[in-house]
Design goal:
about 180 residues; 5-stranded mixed sheet; 5-stranded antiparallel sheet; 3 helices; globular
Length: about 180
């Protein structure tokens, strides 16, 4: 799996600055609300339509799994009413592979992961609201598991949605091998 490096972050900042500063938005990108974007792209695996959200509020806990102590990390990605409206009514494109990408990191941005969900799975997670009226998808990973577990409000553990930690093949991306110079 390709690691997200600092340069990747800064390239993203650069592209975001251009997008938010230009008068017209390129056809490849849609402006979202403050903390989300929609991106369309094509790889050898197909044409993709991706809604991107993030969280920098990482929680860490030690848990016991089969008698062994492991580190569990989790993030809550909150979806505003506007996010949900866009996803439910305007986002899905019939001729594309529709996905929701959840970028999960810490405040220092030095431990970044991506959980990529099928649109239908993301919408299952977002069906119900909390008592306060918000919607969220919680992403967890315990130890070095190869999958993230994603769930929404009032999900039973048996209903958690698994998505691979290594998203590169899923999106038709090729892992770049760094050469020593």
């Amino acid at each position: 799996m390709r690691r997200i490096n600092k340069i990747d972050y800064f390239v993203g900042v650069f592209l975001s600055t251009i997008l938010s500063s230009s008068k017209g938005i390129p056809a490849l990108f849609d402006e979202g609300v403050k903390d989300s974007k929609r991106v369309e792209f094509e790889t050898d695996s197909g044409c993709f339509n991706v809604y991107i959200k993030y969280s920098t509020n990482q929680r860490t806990a030690n848990v016991r799994v089969n008698g062994e102590e492991k580190k569990k990390v989790s993030w809550d990605i909150t979806f505003s009413n506007r996010d949900y409206y866009i996803l439910k009514n305007q986002f899905e494109k019939k001729d594309k592979i529709n996905l929701v990408c959840l970028i999960c990191t810490n405040e220092k941005l030095n431990g970044t992961h991506m959980a990529v969900l099928k649109y239908s799975d993301a919408m299952k997670c977002l069906q119900k609201k909390t008592i306060s009226g918000s919607r969220r998808i919680t992403v967890t990973r315990t130890g070095a598991e190869r999958s993230f577990y994603c769930y929404g409000v009032e999900f039973d553990e048996k209903d958690y949605i698994k998505c691979p930690v290594d998203y590169t093949h899923f999106l038709g991306l090729k892992e770049e091998i760094a050469e020593n110079v």
